[in-house]
Structures are given as structure tokens and as C-alpha cells.
Predict the structure.
Amino acid sequence: MKRIAKISLLVALVGSLLACAGTGEGQLDDRVANGDEAWLGAAVKDVRSASRWGNLAALEEALSGRAALAITELKRSYVAEYGNAVECAIRGYDIGIIGFRGSDLDAALDLLHGAQAHVDAGRIFARLSAAGDIGDAEMRAEIYRIMSVLGGLERDRLRAIYAEMTGSDLDADLARVALVNPHYTRVDERTGVSTIVTGTGRKAADDTARSLVQILQR
């Protein structure tokens, strides 16, 4: 019942994201996807100006409600325009930029990274829900690709969003499929017979599991 409830939650979440396609913000995201450089240019300048003066309200107006795709394109355009990552401006690392401090910095970083964290949490949850109690190397590899590029604060944000979305602890859910068991057993779906993964298969499973465990321990 708990797994069914989680799956229903994920379906509802995906549905709500798709429903945004008909809203004004969804249309803005479509324009980004279609290469609307004029909109991107304005958004980049708005983020720069908001960071220059530490104006959280202006940053919220520029980024709030944007889909992960839109913010990703904005980040790329910002680097092309100013030569540094937008997070450098938000943190006040650029010359002449005040940036944000304290709780305003936390809120600004949530605006910058939150949309992608929601996407990543949904992808991880979907993979874990489909994996059963053991999982597979492909599933672990995809989760590793998602998490290996995240810094410590981004992983903390992902953990918090995952818990909010699913009611579960991300580390505990990942440990369940990362370690599997000491022998890395594989279950035949047709017969239900468990076999021990050996040779190349054992090494691949071992390497992927070790990588996930190292991420969890950072």
C-alpha cells in the first residue's frame, strides 16, 4: 500500500508539471526551448541586476516557477554573457556584485537549483519504485549520474525535496538498492531462483554500488 501511495504521488506530480504547459510560465519555458534569445537575454540581465543589489524579490520574479529546462538554458546564457556561473553572482563572488547572504542566499540558491532538484528527485523515485527490493546496474548507474555531479549543499537540497515528495529518506532508499546484499544476488523473474552475480557482472555491480555508497557518505 505504501508503494502504491508513492506511485500515485509521483503520477500526480508529473500531471501537475504537464498541466503547467498551458500557463503563462509554461509558455515562457516553451519559448526558451524554441530558442527565444530575446527572452533569455532579458532574464539573464534581470538575474544579474537582482544579484548586483542583493534584491531577492527581483530574483524571485526572474526565476520563480520556471521549469528546470528554462533555468538550465538561463545558466548557459549567463556564462556566455558574463564568463562566470550565475551562482558566483548570487554568492557575491563577482566584482561589483553584492549577492545574497544568510537566509536570502539559501532562498536564492533554492530558486536557482530547486527546479532541477525536483526533476532529479522524481527521476530517482521513479527508478527506485520500478526497481523492487534489489534493483539493477542500469538503475544504479542512472542514479549515480544524477548524484555524482551534485555538491554537498545540492545533495542536501535533493534529500529534502525527495523527503517532501515521497515521505521517505533518500539515503535509506538508495542504500537498499546500492548494497543489495553481500553476494549481489540476481533473481530470475520467471522462476524466482536467486543466483550470485560473478565475474564481470559482479565487478560492475560492485563498482556501481561502491560509487553510490561513496556519494551517500560525502
Summary: The chain has two domains: 1-100, 111-218. The CA atoms of residues 110 and 177 lie 28 Å apart.
